[in-house]
Each structure stands twice: as structure tokens, then as C-alpha cells.
Amino acid sequence: MQIRSRLAPYFQVAPLTLVFFVFFLLPIVLVVVVSFFDYQSYQILIPAFTLQNYSDVFSSNVTYRTYAITIRFCLMVWILTLVLGFTIAYFLAFHVRTLTWQIVLFLVCTIPFWTSNVIRMIAWIPLLGRNGLANAALQQLGLVEEPVEWLLYSEFSVILGYVHLYTLFMMVPIFNSMIRIDRS
């Protein structure tokens, strides 16, 4: 009976360990192994150990340009979400006096997150599209002659989408920290 009680935790963790190895570690090992194989056009699996694949990736200008663009996007989104998240959190923590209104306004901020990311991103099309609300407003105000093309399917729209997606995640921890600050 004592042996059985000592082995019980191992038997309990065995299925999870098996799933972890089969669906996480094994695919990673296979990707690393295949990354050393040689390839010809679309035929990938030619078993031969070569470092040429890594040499191609790390000596390519495309790789460096991709990293530079990624870092630029990350910094722009981070700065914008920090400014927006801090502003909203500051307003909720210090200008809204009652807890009830803080909860209500905080829930209003979370309403867009009750839908999927895909639906939220598709919802930008009627606003930013060629015949969208933003272009119609710009034309009505006389600021542009014809619809602006860079509002949708551009770097601007990618940054806008990410800011929309991540502002709440920036706001929540800032708000939680600010709400604990003594007001006296």
C-alpha cells in the first residue's frame, strides 16, 4: 500500500507528461531536425546535415528588414497603448469618484473584448474603408478630394488594430496600481 501511495502522483501526472512530450516537445525537435535538411525548390525533406539554411536566413537582408519593421511596430504600439492606457486608467482611478461608476466605465472598456479578435478587426473596415465613415467625413469636411487609400490595409491600420487590441491589457494593471494609491 505504501508503494502505491508513493507512485500515485507519478501516475496522475503521466497523461499530462505524455501529451506535453507528444504535442509540444516532439514537434519542436522535428522542426529543429528538419531545419538542418537540404532542400530543392519545393522538395524539403532531403536528409543531409547542412548549415546552409541558417546561413541563408541570418545573412539575408529580408530577415534584418523584418526584424527592424517588427521592432518599429512594437515600439509604436507600445507607446500608443501606454499613453492611452495610462490616460484611461488615470481618469478612472482619480476622476471617477464612486466605485459604481468606476465599475460601469471599466465594463464599458471591456465590451469590445466580448467578441473575437477577427470580428473586432473586421469591424474597422466600415470605418476605414474606401467608402467608410472616416473617408466620408474627410471628404465632407473638404480636407481631401478623393478617398484616402492608406487608412485600410496599411501600416496605419495594423498599428491601429494592435492598439485597439492591447490598450485594455495596458490599462488594467495601471488602473490596479493607481487605485491603490492613497489620495491624501
TrEMBL record:
SUPFAM superfamilies, A to Z: MetI-like
Organism annotation: Candidatus Entotheonella gemina
Topological category with respect to the lipid bilayer: Multi-pass membrane protein
PANTHER family on file: INNER MEMBRANE ABC TRANSPORTER PERMEASE PROTEIN YDCU-RELATED, INNER MEMBRANE ABC TRANSPORTER PERMEASE PROTEIN YDCU-RELATED-RELATED
Keyword field contains Membrane: yes
GO cellular component annotations of the record: plasma membrane
Entry keyword set: Cell membrane, Membrane, Transmembrane, Transmembrane helix, Transport
Domain of life according to the entry: Bacteria
Residue spans crossing the bilayer: 12-37, 69-92, 104-125, 150-175
Protein name in UniProt: ABC transmembrane type-1 domain-containing protein
Main localization (coarse): membrane
KW Secreted (keyword) present: no
Cross-referenced Gene3D superfamilies: MetI-like
Similarity annotation: Belongs to the binding-protein-dependent transport system permease family. CysTW subfamily.
Subcellular location: Cell membrane
